[in-house]
Structure formats: structure tokens, C-alpha cells
User: Fold these one by one.
Assistant:
Number 1:
Amino acid sequence: MEIKTLFVTKLYRAAVEGIDNASLLKSCRAIASGDKAGQRWSRENNYAGYTSYASLNDLPKRDPNFAALKSALDKHAMAFARELHLDLSGRRLGLDSMWVNVLEPGGVHTSHIHPQSVLSGTYYVDVPPGASALKLEDPRHASMMSAPQRTADAPESERTFIYVQPEAGEALMWESFIRHEVPMNTAKKARISVSFNYS
Ligand SMILES: [Fe+2]
């Protein structure tokens, strides 16, 4: 008998070197307190806290901390692309968006994908005790029809939902079609992160 493992889904996780995280945290706070359009968007869209997702698309130009993060992430994105065997025809993946998330206690970010991108991910700036994990969903889930649930002792690679508890200073990256969400932030403080898309 032979069992092959096919159609593998990979999650990239790495510490991001060379980032002054304390200074980046100040930059995130400064963006959040200065961006009135983003504050309004967050309020109108019931985002518990602040996101620059809909209001700013030039963070690396605004602040050298975001520029440093971008250049570090560029290398990680290319490393992941190699690991995924993506044929980029000699070209490089480019950052096409980067945004700050300040998720206050009690806040959630409901399940979604990132259409029109190749890789998506998040760099974690501040993850206080009790802060939300990242929940990822098996991308075949919608095709599973009447497939039974997986057993409680199924190995991680066989499960339908995966919870990853990030640490400050690291990045997670996945292919953009993978549905993910941020469950309720049960920390006493905001969970602060910078998310991004590569295309
Ligand atoms: Fe996302």
C-alpha cells in the first residue's frame, strides 16, 4: 500500500531580524492616532480599534520603520515563494499593500481571504498575554460536502482549522487564497500587527 501526501498547504513562520520593534510599535500608534479617515472607516465598519487598511497605502514612504519592515519582508516573501516552487519567470514578488491593525480587547476580524494577491501575511508588533491567535482554514473546506469531521486526535496537518499563536517580532505568511480570521482578542491590551499582501 502507498499513501501519498498531495496538494500541500504551507504556512511560513519566521522571526524577522533587524526590526526595532519598540520603535515600530510607536510608529503604529502614531499612524493610528493621526489617521482620521482610517479611524472613521474603522468606526463605520465596526472594527474594534483601528486599521489603516482602507485609508493608507504608503506606510513604507511615511515612516522608515515600515520601510525597514518592507525590505525585510521582501526577502521572506521570496524565500517562501521558492519554498512553494512558484515560477515567477525571473521576476520578484512585490509588496502591494501593507496596513496597521490595532485590535482592541473584545475585537475580532471575521473570516476572509485576500483576493488578487499571491502571498498574504502579518508581522506581529505587540501580542499581549491572551491576545488572539490566527485561525486558518483548510482551503478544501468548501469542497468537502458530506465529509465527516476530523477526529479530535488528528495530527495538525490533517485538521480543518488551525490556531497559531503568534509572538511579537515574527511574521506569518500563507498563500492568499487561504481563509483566515482573528478570533476575539481576550487580552487586556490591544493586539498590534502589520498585515501585507504580495503579488
Ligand atoms: Fe487577512
Note: The first helix runs from residue 21 to 34.
Number 2:
Amino acid sequence: MARSVPPLRQPAEMSLHRSEGLVIVGAGLAGASAACVLAREGLSALLLERDPEPKHKVCGEFLSIEAQTYLAHLGLDLDHLGASRISRLRLHHRGKQAEAPLPFTARGLSRRVLDEALLEKTMSLGARIERGVTVRSIDTDETANLIDAGPFGTIRAETLFLASGKHDVRGAKRPMAGSINDLIGFKLHYRLAEEQRVALADVIEIILFEDGYAGLQLIEDGIANLCLVVAQNRFERAGKSWNSLIEEIAGECPSGANRLRDALPLWDKPLSIFQIPYGFIHQPQPTEPPGLFRLGDQMGVIPSFTGEGMSMALHSGFLAASSLLRQGRGSTAFHKQMASDIERQVRLAFVLNKAARFGPGQTMLFHLCRSWPSLMQQVAAFTRLREASLQRALALP
Ligand SMILES: Cc1cc2nc3c(=O)[nH]c(=O)nc-3n(C[C@H](O)[C@H](O)[C@H](O)COP(=O)(O)OP(=O)(O)OC[C@H]3O[C@@H](n4cnc5c(N)ncnc54)[C@H](O)[C@@H]3O)c2cc1C
């Protein structure tokens, strides 16, 4: 059953200057999982989170088997949280459908419920979390990281885990060169008509349309999550209107859009995110400052078609914690290991993402799914974290 979690405590007494051993910026999946692993090992981090209370995030909310493995290690019970089960993929393209089994049973759970459950777990293990604190800038040198947390004060941290997700922080911005960033991501939750909810049970539906694709699946409480990415110019052609875009997609792909017939949107308007740097991978530099670790989307951004971003974020949290415990504050080895663990998946997902957006690529994906479902499964397997990478991250000193 889904839970509504009350806001956690507000920023404690403000200070102008303080020193900390480890500060984690961002309490999403990457930051919170790292804090959780470290707290279990007796190392207390200070976690700073911009949002003062639980919030929805733009995400397909599809939990791969690797993400489930990490969450189980953190002690999260997805059944208890009400996650749906998903074992098939259904592709919609120009009014036709093709179906293939997934290589594992995936789960669907809203980020609001998932991220809060993880934060609660982290706090129960003794980590210190300050909510409603936005880090404005970071200044890093050989000895420490100086964190400007606005009215919360300035913090001197020996080690900093930067896990601010899609949001860059001044002084530590990601270079976007080489990544796709002309896409807009949208997400909206719906209460479907009963007949459509039954048709969606156990399935993730991908709807391919001109210059974009959408994913539709059930999450907790029988709610459906529609998450789509679309080229910015296509959205502009739709008059920058969500309703017009959905109508146009329905015209292009009636079978997919059928699912939303008589559906009730649960919010007034969708959440959105702009300029997602799909394909970005942080490349460690020889001059990289020690004591600054990049986690989650700050380390690498996998195109969302494969639904593997959350497991990569969790992977980075486990690996960073393990690296700090084993090797201390030198971050180069961690960044190198992360880059090697995620490179293959990010590159392949980059190609798949391009194929899923344009006519010939869409046709190819559709025929692959319809005629060679087992080949489709193998392609999917190549976009996932390798077993050896998982085992390495899960092995603590
Ligand atoms: C359209 C789309 C669909 C996706 N679908 C899926 C999917 O179905 N399955 C999947 O596995 N992955 C999916 N992903 C990827 C996944 O959402 C991300 O990879 C994942 O959330 C990254 O986790 P994170 O911890 O790095 O960042 P986040 O979860 O974004 O957490 C970052 C946290 O940092 C906080 N923060 C930001 N700036 C500051 C600051 N200055 N000071 C303090 N706090 C700050 C934020 O409030 C946030 O809580 C999708 C991504 C997109 C864009």
C-alpha cells in the first residue's frame, strides 16, 4: 500500500561556518543510498537536500532488476510499498502493436514514495539530513571543499559526494559536449478507466511517435504513470501545449493513446524537465581535486529508453561509499571504475534513444520486437549493469 510520508525536519540552527568530514549534496537515490551504506558502517554523513518535503520527480518509475537488487540490500520492501509488477513490453507504432517478454520482472513505484522510503531508512540508521537546504556553489581545492549553502551557512567538508541529479551546482558544473540535450521530459499520473487499467496490468507500453517516445505503466495503488520525452522543436510545433501534444500523439498512434481514454489526470499539468544531457559520462581528469565524488546523474546520464538510470544512481551510491571506506578521499579510482561500469550501457542506450525517436529507427525497433522478441531481450540485457559490477559495489571492506 502506498504511504503518505510527512515532511521531515526543517534545517537545524544556521551557522556561518562549520567543518564536516563528509557532506552529501542531494538526497535522491544516489545520495541517500551512499549515506545509508556509510551509516551502516558507522560513518555519519551530513546530507543536504534542496526540497523541504516529499516531491514527485520526472521519471518513468520503472525499476529494473538491478535497481531492485540494490533496494533490497538497503532493506526496502517493494511489496510493502505497493510497487506494481511488470513482465512484458508492448510497443505501439503507427497504430500497430508488438509484444515481447522482459528478461526479468520489473517493478513500478512512484519516485515520491520510493525516495521518501529510502530517506526514512537512511535517517533510521543515524544519518543527519537537512531538508530545504540548497547548495549554491562549491569551491574545491586540494585539502577540502567549501560549500555555500546559503542561509544554512558555509561548510568546509573534507569529502563531498555531489549527488544533485539533473541540477548542476556552480563551481562543479558538468560539461555537456557530446550529449543530446534538445529533449524535454514530461510526466503525469493518471487514474485510468477500469478496462484500460486491466489492459495495462503487468505491461510497460512504449508509444513511438514522431520525434519522441512515451512510456506508460502502472505504479502503486493502480495509478498509471505516463512519462515521455520529445524533441523541443516538436513540442514547439504542438504550440508548446501538453494537451495538443497528447492529441497529436493520439492521432499518430491511436492504439497507444487508447489507454488514456476517459482517464483522469491526477495533477493540473505535467511535470517537466528541459535539456537532459543524455549520454554524458564524467571523465576523470588528471587534475581532478581529491575529495570530490560525482554520483548518479552527476556521474553519467543514461537515455531513459532503457529504464536503467535509477540502478546506475544506486550503483554509484554503493560504489562511492565502498571506495571511501577502502581507499579514503581519493576519487579518481572511483570515477574511473564508474565510467568503465556504465560506458557500454550509456553508449548503447544513446543509440537506442536515437532510433526510438526517428521513423526508420522506430520501424526497425518495432519489427525487432515483433519478429525476434528474444533478440530484443538480448539488446535489453546489454543496456544493464553487469553482474560483476554489482558484486563489486555490494562488497564492502
Ligand atoms: C524522462 C526521464 C525518464 C526516466 N525514467 C527512468 C526509469 O523509468 N527508470 C530508471 O531507472 N531511470 C529513469 N530515469 C533516470 C532517473 O530518473 C535518474 O537517473 C535518477 O533519478 C538519478 O538519481 P540521482 O540521485 O542522481 O538524482 P535525483 O533523483 O534527481 O536526486 C537529486 C537530488 O538532489 C537535490 N538537489 C539538486 N540540486 C541541489 C542543490 N543545489 N542543493 C541541494 N540539493 C539539491 C534534488 O532536489 C534531488 O532530490 C529517467 C530520467 C528521465 C529524465
Note: The chain has a mean pLDDT of 91.
